[in-house]
Amino acid sequence: MTQADPTNKEEDEELRATATARLEDAGIGVTAERVRVLGLLIRFNDRAWTAQELAQSGLGAASDPAAITRLYRTLHLLEQRGVVTREIEASSGRPSLGYRLAGAKSPLRFRCRSCNRLVEANDERLREQLESAGALQGLPVSEGETLVLVTCSRCAAGASG
Asked: How much is the pLDDT for 18?
């Protein structure tokens, strides 16, 4: 029998405490399900996650219809109370709804109009310039994902050749 890693246990306890505090701050009743869902979003805060990905990545609910329903209800409640935001996630090639913690920096993405290639850029200066340009034109850049449509060099070369 192997001994549990105390670091993971401490990290899990810290995640539970953080998730519990966020739920309480939002006036949401604390349940084990809500703490687990929010804990996953806190732990994996690098991008927006679909409900299916969350179910497969730690909730053990991927094939249980009732658990999937509870997950969607939990995500909907968290979104209504401003704890999470919902974004269109299209990294798989087809759009789906993803969820991430509210206030988390969303990525700046470039998508090719022709081949749908998606490139993520974590350039804070570029984001600030886009926000400034948008504000000057009366088009504020949203807090969620910022998507810039382009034609990639591969497609541009194919179109001109």
From this structure: 92
13, 72, 94 from 115: Cα distances, Å: 44, 32, 12
Given this model, what pLDDT does residue 28 score? 95
The answer to whether 80 and 71 are in contact (CB under 8 A) is no
The C-alpha atoms of residue 38 and residue 113 are separated, in whole angstroms, by 34
Strands 118-121 and 108-112: antiparallel
Helices assigned H by DSSP within 83-123: none
Name the one residue in this structure whose structure tokens are 């470039």: 110
Strands 96-101 and 146-150, by their bridges, are: unpaired
Q: What is the Cα 78 distance to its own chain's centre?
A: 13
The rounded Cα 158 to chain-centroid distance in angstroms is: 34
pLDDT, tens digit, for every residue of 80-118? 998 998 877 665 667 778 888 887 666 677 888 888 887
For residues 71 and 67, give the distance between their C-alpha atoms in angstroms, rounded to a whole number: 6
CA nearest to 81, candidates 93, 89, 73: 73
Judged by DSSP in three states, 97 sits in: strand
- The domains of the chain, with CATH numbers, are 1-104 (1.10.10.10), 105-161 (3.30.1490.190)
Residue 132, classed as helix, strand or coil, is helix
